[in-house]
Amino acid sequence: MELRHLRYFVSVVKLGSFTRAADELCITQPTLSHQIRQLEDELGCEVFERGARSVRLTGAGEIFTAYAGRALREAEDGKAAVRAFQGLREGRLAFGVVSSFTNTLLPPVLSRFQAEYPGIELNVLELPTAELERQVRDGELSFGVAYGPAHSELVALEEMFEEELALIVVREHPLAGRKSIGLGELGEVPLALLPRSFVSRKLVDAAFAEASCRPMVKLELNSIDALLQMAAKTRLGTILATRMASRTGPLVAVPIRPVLRRIACIFTRRGTGLPPAAKVILEMVRTANRSGAGAQRPESLKQ
Q: Which domains does the chain have, with CATH numbers?
């Protein structure tokens, strides 16, 4: 059994099709089928049920999937260790961030890393927190930067800073001059919010529920930039981090009372060593955070 057999197997599992997997792997479908047959001969059983238009894992294939993925990750970790010995001259690193950080914390970090380690290829994915946590847990990403809490015992969190959420409206909005707004009154404001799958939305919904009221949601968008554009061009408000008001046009942030806070964290897989490149870029993330590139942090957290 060779690594290519495992790579081919994992690709078919991921895509659910020999045709699509062959395209991704840049090989012919007959070659892929032959390699999978070799793998099945080695295992002594079939790993796929082959249909006319799709393939499904057999019971044995389900069991083998986790081991194949783990073996490939171990091989990648081994290559990363060798590259570290070579002085980080070349290699590849994949990590994830939530959209809140793509235009704030991330740009100075990526600029510095690319300048110091031009041979390292970075694959940065912008993901919702739940998907980011899953990929960190499963070893698909070396780490992630998102908002806690984590829901898997396999994922460890390192807290960086906390930040407040605010009502963000255009300057001409009737509430723009307010020093603060309570949740009861906020429940009467038409809002554009992130979908319920987002951590920030769950925080907002929980706060309204505790205050025995509901947000007046007129629009859901899964893009922070799109929410800011809607707030800037309509009378809809949105609820995001206070610092977001400075990203798009004539927007102002109205503090919400009681305060809604979320904690930004580094997500890593518990019990798994980080590749050298991940250690380097995470230290750059921590440095950028301490310098204030990530968020406007409360004074109590700047020490």
A: 3-83 (1.10.10.10), 87-158+268-301 (3.40.190.10), 161-263 (3.40.190.290)
